[in-house]
Amino acid sequence: MNQIIRFCMSCGQPTQDRTPEGDNRSRAVCGQCGEIHYVNPKIVAGAVAVYEDRVLLCRRAIEPRKNYWTLPAGFMENNETVAEAAQRETREEAEGEVTLHGLLSIGDVPHIGQVHMYYLGDLIEGKHSVGVESLETRLFSEADIPWDDLAFKTVTETLRYYFSLRARPGFVASAPGEPYQFTAQWKPDR
Amino acid sequence: MNQIIRFCMSCGQPTQDRTPEGDNRSRAVCGQCGEIHYVNPKIVAGAVAVYEDRVLLCRRAIEPRKNYWTLPAGFMENNETVAEAAQRETREEAEGEVTLHGLLSIGDVPHIGQVHMYYLGDLIEGKHSVGVESLETRLFSEADIPWDDLAFKTVTETLRYYFSLRARPGFVASAPGEPYQFTAQWKPDR
């Protein structure tokens, strides 16, 4: 996970690992201009995109976990919200458009410096097709989810949580913009 | 917000702004070794730390918004969870220890590439004192919150939301590890 910053991104001179004054962690500090380079966790945003009673999964065309099934998700970019990132990733990986409800899950993945956040959404008209980072996209009913071939633990947990929620009597997805009623979070593996 | 990456952090040679193959955004790409430098949003994690009916605020010793009041919060680091970051920031900014309940709010701040996440917590024994980035720390009752002197919009929104929740009949903070019952999210200013 730790990006290795050997050279200063401002002046191109070598960095040194040291703890800046007033800080308590080692950072890559430029030996020439003094710039401090911070490396922080990244957000992976995605969607549980539902059509009728089925959920959209994508078979990954790229590493890590090539060939395994995942929810559409990817790195959030600057200048967008978490929700917009989830919609964009669904578009890029599965050529689907989603109307979002509330945030369904937040999963810390500290050993690789990531936080995964999944929204619940409706896949418009059930339309999807294979995006650039996918080998295949498909709508799965709960009985058909390929549990042993899911790509990431946060995908498995999010799907399990979604199906457990849906099974509750009277379950209604929260409206966009409302306080989220059911965001789950789990203890990470360490 | 956009960190300017003029030089490659791997080899120190100048970068060029261009859209890598298979991507759809301009990135700083090394002209020498081809490394692509991604810049993604950062998570700011913090706590609404409550003792009896009062909330802990810190008056900022540093820019931006020096002298204004804030909830203890700061950039999440690698190798920690969002919850651990909220606890660490409360320790660093206010020398307080918090037992956390659920996640209270998520605030997108896309124009500066940040996502702010606040937990609800109990400030142990009500103890706090001035941390390195604070000029003053104090427990405020709802009636005394310095609304006009709060540092950030996400702080104002999170406090308003907390007080509105607390006013509901039968309000009980969700237990740690339980699905979060009341996480709020707002449309960002654009």
UniProtKB/TrEMBL annotation, chains A, B:
UniProt xrefs under CDD domains: NUDIX_Hydrolase
Q: In which domain of life is the source organism classified?
A: Bacteria
List, alphabetically, the SUPFAM superfamilies matched.
Answer: Nudix
Known PROSITE patterns for this protein? NUDIX
Molecular functions (GO terms): hydrolase activity
Give the matching Pfam families.
NUDIX, Zn_ribbon_Nudix
Cite the Nudix hydrolase domain residue spans from the record: 40-163
Listed A to Z, the keywords are: Hydrolase
What is the name of the protein in this document? NUDIX hydrolase
